[in-house]
Amino acid sequence: MKPLLKTTDEKRYSLSEYFALETANRETKYEYLDGEIVAMAGAQPEHNSICTNLITTLTNQIRRKKKPCRVYPSDQRVKSEVKASGKMGYFYPDVSVVCGEPKFSDDNPRTLLNALVVIEVLSESTSQYDFNEKRVYYSAQESIQEMLFVYYEKPFVVCVTREKEAWVIADYQSLTEKIPLRAIGIELPMKEVYRDVSFPKPNKKTLKTLIR
């Protein structure tokens, strides 16, 4: 999913107004950033392919290694709270993972409270919102130990891992690499992330490369 419309007026929306909007407009997902509301639009086929690859690969790896984890798609809303400032965020990451017993709030739809890993698939037009704005909220949520930001326009993944009181950032750009998800104890092959995904070559020719 990508941001469709962000409120630009002076009004700050309450959580009750946000929940009312979500309930009244079930055909559209809305994210909430401390009083601002963002409507989410549909995504490009490449974006959707990567999301499918991520869910499939993560699920297979988790089952193979018998990890007590489960994978959720973009319909699962996640709560993030910046306790230092009291700011609240409600988001729909493209993929989220929880290990152990998932905890949910009582609102409708129910919100996941203890996501361990969140993944956002982004493009040039959404990277500012996903990486700069949402990352602040994700990093403040105590349960979240790892974040992945995956570009669909080229092979490029940024992995942000919590290490004690700091966050360590690593990027992966080769299809031969494997991304270590230490919070889950698995590795995510870049080749599987971009399987059957086409994108322009760096020389900007119209020919496309299809990863198999």
Any overview of this molecule?
This protein has 212 residues and is an alpha+beta fold. The chain has one domain (43-210): tt1808, chain A. The protein is 23% helix and 35% strand. It has helices spanning 15-24, 45-64, 127-140, 190-193; strands at 2-6, 30-33, 36-41, 69-72, 78-82, 87-91, 95-99, 117-122, 146-151, 156-163, 166-172, 178-181, 186-189, 198-200, 208-210. The strands form 4 sheets. It has a 6-stranded mixed sheet with strand order 4-7-8-9-10-11, sandwiched between helices. A 5-stranded antiparallel sheet has the order 1-3-2-6-5, with helices on both faces. Strand 5 and strand 6 (87-91) form a beta hairpin. The model is unreliable at 1-5 and 203-212 (pLDDT under 50).
Count the domains: 1
Largest sheet: 6 strands, mixed
Overall SS class: alpha+beta
Helical segment count: 4
> Strand-residue fraction?
35-45%
Which structural traits does this protein have?
disordered N terminus, 212 residues, 4 helices, six-stranded mixed beta sheet, single chain, tt1808, chain A, alpha+beta
